[in-house]
Amino acid sequence: MEEMNFQPNLVAKNLVSKTTGSICVVLPQISEESFSNSFYIEMIRGIVKQARDSGYDVIISSGANETEEKEAVSRLLRGRQVDGAILLCSRKEDAVVEFLKTGGYPFVLVGRSNQYDDILSVQTNNVTAAYDATRHLISMGHTRIGFISGPRELIVSADRLEGYRNAMRESELRVCPDWVLEGQVLRDSGYRAMSAYMSLSERPTALVVVDDLISFGLLRSLKELGYRVPDDLALVSFNNIQLVELSSPPISSIDMDMYFQGYTASQILIRSLKLPGNRSSEMHKQIVPHRLIVRESSVKARI
Amino acid sequence: MEEMNFQPNLVAKNLVSKTTGSICVVLPQISEESFSNSFYIEMIRGIVKQARDSGYDVIISSGANETEEKEAVSRLLRGRQVDGAILLCSRKEDAVVEFLKTGGYPFVLVGRSNQYDDILSVQTNNVTAAYDATRHLISMGHTRIGFISGPRELIVSADRLEGYRNAMRESELRVCPDWVLEGQVLRDSGYRAMSAYMSLSERPTALVVVDDLISFGLLRSLKELGYRVPDDLALVSFNNIQLVELSSPPISSIDMDMYFQGYTASQILIRSLKLPGNRSSEMHKQIVPHRLIVRESSVKARI
DNA sequence: CTGTTAGCGCATTCAG
DNA sequence: CTGAATGCGCTAACAG
């Protein structure tokens, strides 16, 4: 105890305590193209805040593909560099989830897994969220409602599509296959795709869109094509990024509270880490409520 | 060497090698309010990519204020948990910079320091960038050009203001004090502030705006007030976020290549870490070129 | 060239 | 209750 302000060597401390005081979060590459960028920074802020408050550090991990992601997180976990992991995104038959689950590593998934039901996770009910979005459009008098989807391998895409179908079925509305589009098409050639879409003999009068970013692109293409929102086409999308209220018209969107999802994921993980038994195999699914923010893009009548 | 696939304990390895193979990046809180969110995730992606390729891990650090940030990075560095740090944002008389510099820790600043000139840094020339933006507006025939600034304590705000003033002075154009506004005002009450602004007896016909996000807000307020962009007011802003080309009209913006800035910062830091002498006190300033992307918000004549 | 040992900086344990 | 020894898992220097 030489001088007063003395900082112990954390590495040595970690070695003896067999705990690192760190968690890693896997920053996905796949959804980078299709989902809003600000999406993840919000989650990360939430994770870092909570981890910091709990005395944990956060390591950002990533990989160009599923295999690289798995190897990165494996090195960290097996090398005892981190105590647990947070996955920000879930794919169908996700190799990273499988690795973490079968390896018995502590981890939390932000999203749903289609492989295991007994894992720690924080998620919004995407089926219900899409159902709500669709119901809202139906309540505004729409009967021909389309759906713009995200990458097929993401579970969130499938869930939202299901919620949309549920709402349509419940109201006995027809879903024309032509009405369901993958968002990627729009990013590649928004104008052309939208032109074709709006020329359908029986075109939709409203759209449920899987991410706000795509809505921005749609808005732009529609304006160029001379269509008006919401009069010619009403829009509701997901994630409620900061900018949706500044677009013209402002976009109706379902808020998922990304910061809180990150905060909660971190909380669940660290709590499980601190449990003596470390019974992470126990089922623990935390549902974060969503809420629809109605703005002009889905409301015809001006007040 | 029991089994074939064996992962050594990195903590023990680090302890003996006296090197951690990790760097930390300080995620600033201050600019969260005034600058685009997607801004930082881009930098982080660049940092993580380069660090990963160099065999380094990235720890995200943050704090609610300058002091907390300093303590967080201090704990990491003095506790030998990381080998160096990257600062994503520079304030005037920045306490974190001062701590790192006087402590002799390896670090790279993304941005300019007003305290030290002999530190590792990667930056865009914000003075020139703002000069270019202003010159562009002047070349479009504008003479009454205003400026919307960011937080005063950020060096980037001051530099851009200076570049704007330089261009105006060079062209012998007057800068009316009423024309220079702090962005925060607009976020608090965009409509009201903009209404007052446009009612000035001698109001500007063009604006240089410190961040794209503020431009979005301006666009919204102006539309509500019945003004047209670029006819009533032309706009150029900074950072060139993904969404500027999807707004209506698309916003002219100066691209700063955030991903590359992050990538470069990581590269400089890790290179200095690997140097035997670790002569980080050597001056090394990397300037990342910017470029103006002209879009409709600053061009009156339709082609 | 292969196998053994010392020590990295702590925390925990045991002895004084 | 305070102080010295042991070991965390690895790498390095060392001896066989």
Automatic annotation (TrEMBL), chains A, B:
> Does the entry feature the keyword Kinase, yes or no?
no
What's a Gene Ontology MF term here? transcription cis-regulatory region binding
Known SUPFAM superfamilies for this protein?
Answer: Periplasmic binding protein-like I
Keywords attached to this entry: DNA-binding, Transcription, Transcription regulation
Q: Where is the Transcriptional regulator LacI/GalR-like sensor domain?
A: 135-298
Gene3D superfamilies annotated for this entry? 3.40.50.2300
Report which superkingdom the organism of origin falls in: Bacteria
Entries under PANTHER family matching the protein: HTH-TYPE TRANSCRIPTIONAL REGULATOR GALS, LACI-RELATED TRANSCRIPTIONAL REPRESSOR
Query: Which protein are we looking at?
Result: LacI family transcriptional regulator
Q: Please report the organism this UniProt entry assigns to the protein.
A: Paenibacillus sabinae T27
Q: What is the lineage of its organism?
A: Bacteria, Bacillati, Bacillota, Bacilli, Bacillales
